[in-house]
Amino acid sequence: MTAVGPFGLSVRDQALEADVQTGLAAVEAGLLDACKSDVPFITEAAQHLVRAGGKRFRPLLVMLAAQFGDPYAPGVVPSAVVVELTHLATLYHDDVMDEADVRRGVPSANARWGNSVAVLTGDFLFARASHILADLGPEAVRIQAEAFERLVTGQILETAGPRDGRDPVEHYLDVIAGKTGSLIAVAGRFGAMMSGADERVVDILTQYGERLGVAFQLADDLLDIASDSHESGKTPGTDLREGIATLPVLHLRAMAAASGEAADHELVALLDSDLTDDDRHAEALRRLRVHPALDLARRDTIRYAQEARALLAPLPDRTAKAALEELCDLVVHRAG
After folding, report:
1. Which of 327, 296, 283, 287 is nearest to 221 (CA)?
2. What CA–CA distance (Å, rounded) separates 126 from 88?
3. In this predicted model, what pLDDT tens digit does every residue of 289-304 receive, in sequence order?
4. pTM, to two decimals
5. What b-and-e string marks burial along 203-219, b requiring 16 or more CB atoms within 10 Å of the CB?
6. What gap in Å lies between CA 152 and CA 163, rounded to an integer?
7. Per-residue pLDDT tens for 226-249?
8. Are the CB atoms for 301 and 218 separated by under 8 Å?
């Protein structure tokens, strides 16, 4: 049993392990190649986050989904590169929006080179992803375009907030289904589709990826509050400091409104205060880490991971299916 990739999936089949490891190595080489430019500075900036590492969760899902067809089909690795390039591009943009200083344990691109370079580098990666997509055919281009539209729509909805009368928790789950679930769904879809898997399998792995993607993001939200910087690779409480209400905070606000508990209202008031102050920020993190709202958000994370696992039931029994099931467990483990 060997851990495959930075995400730490344990594979119990040597042939599957070899396929996945070979595929991920090819993806890594493809990412570095796609980030090269005739301008050395662009190459440095574009490769900055690639070289910083990462979980490579999306390429891993592509490789596992491809096991239900021909995993050596020529479109499998390029499609994984496309999905990861798109993800990396969004990270450059996210760090500008969040004014983040750290990403994957290294200075963010905006902290190192400024916002303009970070935004333009993200645009450069989108362009390179589109170039690779063009060789994968019009259907792949359409799928990626639809997912990118959902991703951007999710980001805009997050910025705009819920409309009057809309449950903030439901709104937030819709946001992350677009921002995160859509691209992870494409990873499952591309892996199955490029390998020539049956349409029913493609549909199952697309739905699986969407639900797993939501669970994955919810686990990240929990880590932003509950972990230290060594564990998460970025500064804890970034979302709190920027006033982004993730699921634990939304549950807290709902609990405060429903119960009227003084301690809950005090914590809400603290979260609404200026959390650029380090002492207030540390106190907000400390109190939120022990609040029942965090456990409620953790249960939501587990529910989405369980739904993803249940979707796999019709797939043929093979080691790739077991690995996809284990991904659900790993996401839950990240959530604590």
Report:
1. 296
2. 9
3. 999 999 999 999 999 9
4. 0.91
5. ebbbbbbbbbbbbbbbb
6. 18
7. 877 545 555 778 888 888 889 999
8. yes
